[in-house]
């Protein structure tokens, strides 16, 4: 959700039914977006309540062998937690796709062959924002390049998980949940968690019902879905406040006791770059919700100097003004649709200068092992500068006592016990009028900022079936049955 928004106000706990405009009042983009979110919330919950969490129309997303080492995914409609996933045209039998040639490809694990062991086949879907850099046809050329609205897109991928991998992932989740339980005891009323189970019942039933040597024996789909849900039990939690030590600001323009020291209203985005546990996870931040981005026209040759790589990148534009532009020393991320769909982080780089052509910039970058310039079609600016790693990032550094400074008095804290994914993000609105951030507080006599789960990306999963083979025998695929 890298959009130029003032804030995001929808919260299902409010129970709001609709937005009611008033005459002579200011209409904000947040009001319009909340109305759309309310309607989407009610529609999706109605579908899930009436038909269940997973519901297929006919044989949609059914599995079948397709040659050696591949399988097909039947066309049609499948609803996951009320979110519609469409595979081709519902009534077109030729619309089936192959696992290795899906509409939203670039699978996260980079597989080029099916696993040698038996595996669970599942669908993962999520909602993402698409703008003119991803879909140029959205731009109205009569507006002379002016940006307008974004679109939301339901994105889905069929993925594989070996049963041994599922068990290994759960052990990691269980270990982090124990840390979460300890954090909840140290911050009562601020961190809410459930007691970490010693073993997931659903996972045990799944492994028992599906021995690796018998791929035709299927467990109940509800059991498989519960096992997938267990892998999300260690949802990352973060707190934000404006109580940190501010940088050196002009005391004549702000109250001396101001907590947020900025001179403009901002929507800060705290986003995970490298996923994993707290030992390996990193994050970056933007005061513009990561919305300052540029189309990449071409990427020039690589120049090795003093042990670092320098690359010249030609952009479609350098931005409309300083707020939406670039400057020497800025940290930027080279990304694109293919990179995003793969689940991998973009390549971080630092701006060294401009030229020789008007739209050229020179960047310093630690090149990935297999650098493919054609995959990087978007350059996104991030705003961190001080005390960053060589890649321009921060370590997550989970804690219940210390805070991580962002800027202008804003600080964040990641609560122990999270498993992070690339792209997880939190939004922190900062307001000049209150010299504070808008962040929910505990309701006791000494209010403290609550630990909240990520605002996104919210991913939904549905088990589709199982696959495997015995020795050098043929591949077999068995599908779960949803709906009628």
Task: Describe the protein.
- By secondary structure, this protein is an alpha+beta fold.
- Strands 12-13-16-15-14-17 form a six-stranded antiparallel beta barrel. It has a five-stranded antiparallel beta sheet with strand order 18-11-10-21-22, with no helix packed on it.
- The longest helix has 24 residues.
- It starts with 28 loop residues before the first helix and ends in a 5-residue tail after the last strand.
Query: Which overall shape is indicated by the principal axes computed on the Cα atoms?
Result: globular
| Major sheet summary line | 6 strands, antiparallel, barrel
Query: What is the spatial order of strands in the main beta sheet?
Result: 12-13-16-15-14-17
The overall pLDDT average reads 87
Domain tally: 2
Per DSSP E runs of 2 or more residues, the count of β-strands stands at: 25
Structural class: alpha+beta
**Low-pLDDT runs:** 247-252
The number of helical runs is 5
Strand content: 25-35%
How helix-rich are the residues, as a percent range? 10-25%
Helix and strand sequence:
HEEEEEEEEHHHEEEEEEHEEEEEEEEEEE
Q: Evaluate the radius of gyration.
A: 24 Å
What's the oligomerization state?
A: single chain
Give the N-terminus to C-terminus distance in angstroms: 35 Å
Summary, kept brief:
By secondary structure, the protein is α+β, with helices and mostly antiparallel strands.
List the helices and strands and how they pair.
Elements: H1 29-51, E1 54-56, E2 63-65, E3 71-73, E4 76-80, E5 83-87, E6 97-98, E7 119-130, E8 151-162, H2 163-186, H3 201-209, H4 221-230, E9 237-241, E10 266-272, E11 282-286, E12 293-305, E13 308-315, E14 331-335, H5 337-342, E15 347-354, E16 360-365, E17 378-382, E18 394-395, E19 404-407, E20 410-414, E21 425-431, E22 436-437, E23 452-453, E24 459-468, E25 476-479
Antiparallel strand pairs: 1-4, 2-3, 3-6, 4-5, 7-8, 7-24, 9-20, 9-23, 10-11, 10-21, 11-18, 12-13, 12-17, 13-16, 14-15, 14-17, 15-16, 19-20, 21-22, 24-25
